[in-house]
Write a structure and sequence with these properties.
Layout: E1 6-15, H1 20-31, E2 36-39, H2 46-57, E3 61-64, H3 77-95, E4 101-102, H4 111-116, E5 120-122, E6 125-126, H5 136-146, E7 151-156, H6 162-177, E8 180-183, H7 185-191, E9 201-204, E10 207-209
Parallel strand pairs: 1-2, 1-7, 1-8, 2-3, 4-5, 5-9, 6-7
Antiparallel strand pairs: 9-10
Length: about 210
């Protein structure tokens, strides 16, 4: 049997905010683990920026999820670059560090997007946790049914998403029990010895998904 650790990266989209983001951070802190947060720049306020900074200070990474959360495969090259530039600048203001990863809103991707965004593209295995009718129990079940080494889990710390907070109370202890190490998206690539390549989008470090 291999002694190699199992690695997983929890990722959270659509923050920051002052309601759900701090609850997610409380759980991460309670369990002594890290994650990655993909910010929408238009959601950054002086108050919500404090939550992003808290995440960064805990060892989490802060990554780019655009300014306006539009379908960026429908934008011009100039519009794409502006969405990335402004979001990156906001993140640098908070953390002093530029993002290295980008999750396209709606996972809407085309070659124009790849050509104009100089960041690693991330998708992730989701559980439809943006759908209010998907219960906390069902979210946890879906995540735990599909995890494997190198997995990137797509979740949301958006406003009114209490069901994901509740699901994490099951997901995190169970993944620990299964022997998973929790990583940021940066750590999971490095730890698995994988160098991301251009023109690809990742849901698992060991697999790329062509979506265009």
């Amino acid at each position: 049997m291999s002694n190699q650790p199992l690695r997983i990266a929890l990722t959270f989209d659509d923050g920051p905010n002052t309601t759900i983001t701090p609850q997610v951070l409380d759980l991460l802190e309670e369990h002594g683990i890290v994650a990655s947060f993909f910010l929408i720049a238009q959601n950054i306020t002086p108050e919500s920026a404090l939550q992003a900074r808290r995440a960064y200070d805990m060892g989490c990474t802060i990554e780019n999820h655009s300014v306006t959360h539009r379908e960026m495969d429908k934008l011009s090259p100039e519009e794409i670059r502006e969405e990335i530039r402004v979001c990156t600048e906001k993140i640098v203001e908070i953390t002093g560090e530029e993002p290295k990863f980008f999750r396209p809103p709606y996972i809407a991707v085309n070659q124009t997007l790849f050509d104009n965004v100089d960041l690693t593209f991330i998708c992730g295995s989701g559980c439809e946790d943006w759908v209010p009718t998907v219960s906390a129990e069902e979210r946890a079940r879906r995540v735990l049914a599909n995890v494997k080494d190198g997995e990137i889990v797509l979740l949301h710390d958006m406003i009114r998403n209490e069901n994901t907070v509740e699901a994490l109370k099951t997901i995190i202890p169970e993944l620990k029990k299964r022997g998973f190490t929790f990583c940021t998206v940066r750590q999971i690539f490095e730890g698995c010895g994988v160098t991301p390549v251009r023109n690809r989008i990742y849901s698992n470090v060991f697999q790329t998904v062509d979506r265009f």
